[in-house]
């Protein structure tokens, strides 16, 4: 029991320490990755169905070796400013541990400077919003050291919209409820009319 308490206190302390430790800031990252995302301009992607192809590579304008500490690359789906307004839970923070801009991981891959790509089906739990794609490069300590994104510094170009599955399912569900309501009513209707028929034939 005491051991368990000790363990709990220790892990609590550790998690406090961890949360106060150094965290990378977005403004300190070099933009050394080139990222592009294929999507038809104006087409709304359906979560759980539609695909997006993301391509990324090292920007060779930077001196060779700038990427020597890069170990992994994570591609993330990020909320565009228009979908962050009045939503504190999607707020951009320079401290990347607190940043809530990019909440949906597309893929995590070992870093390679050459051109890589992934064709990704938008996950079913992605909410309706306007997005862009950002790639973060991580060092061996799993800290962000560089990035790239398929949009400009103001997150205004090349954005795309995703429509959540829930909205579509809600309307399907409503249709299903209406339909079953309708069948219950018609079943009762059938039942009563048969009963009445039976009664009237009995009376004859
Ligand atoms: C590569 O980096 C240079 C220097 O920062 C920049 O001017 C250029 O636009 C970048 N290339 C691409 C394709 O993003
Ligand atoms: C994606 O990568 C594969 C394998 O490297 C390559 O054959 C393919 O042409 C690439 N596709 C795009 C769209 O870049």
UniProtKB/TrEMBL annotation:
- What keywords appear on the UniProt entry? Cell membrane, Membrane, Nitrate assimilation, Signal, Transmembrane, Transmembrane helix
One matching Pfam family is NAR2
Into which family does the record put it?
Belongs to the NAR2 family.
- Tell me which stretches of the chain form a coiled coil: none
Q: Name one GO biological process term.
A: response to nitrate
Biological function: Involved in nitrate transport.
What is the name of this protein? High-affinity nitrate transporter
Query: Which PANTHER family does the record match to this protein?
Result: HIGH-AFFINITY NITRATE TRANSPORTER 3.1, HIGH-AFFINITY NITRATE TRANSPORTER 3.2
Signal peptide per UniProt: 1-23
Got a GO cellular component term for this one?
plasma membrane
Molecular functions (GO terms)? nitrate transmembrane transporter activity
What organism does this protein naturally occur in?
A: Fraxinus pennsylvanica
Q: Give the transmembrane ranges.
A: 174-192
């Amino acid at each position: 029991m005491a051991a368990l308490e000790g363990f709990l206190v220790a892990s609590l302390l550790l998690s406090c320490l961890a949360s106060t430790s150094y965290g990378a800031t977005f403004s300190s990252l070099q933009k050394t990755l080139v990222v592009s995302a294929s999507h038809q301009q104006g087409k709304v992607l359906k979560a759980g169905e539609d695909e997006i192809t993301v391509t990324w590579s090292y920007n060779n304008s930077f001196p060779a070796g700038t990427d020597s500490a890069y170990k992994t690359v994570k591609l993330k789906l990020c909320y565009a400013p228009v979908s962050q307004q009045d939503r504190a839970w999607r707020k951009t923070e320079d401290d990347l541990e607190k940043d809530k801009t990019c909440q949906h991981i597309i893929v995590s891959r070992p870093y390679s400077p050459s051109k890589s790509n992934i064709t990704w089906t938008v996950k079913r739990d992605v909410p309706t919003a306007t997005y862009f794609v950002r790639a973060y490069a991580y060092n061996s300590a799993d800290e962000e050291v560089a990035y790239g994104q398929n949009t400009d510094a103001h997150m205004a170009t090349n954005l795309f919209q995703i429509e959540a599955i829930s909205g579509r399912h809600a309307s399907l569900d409503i249709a299903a409820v209406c339909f079953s309501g309708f069948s219950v009513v018609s079943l009762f209707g059938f039942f009563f009319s048969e009963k009445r028929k039976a009664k009237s034939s009995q009376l004859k």
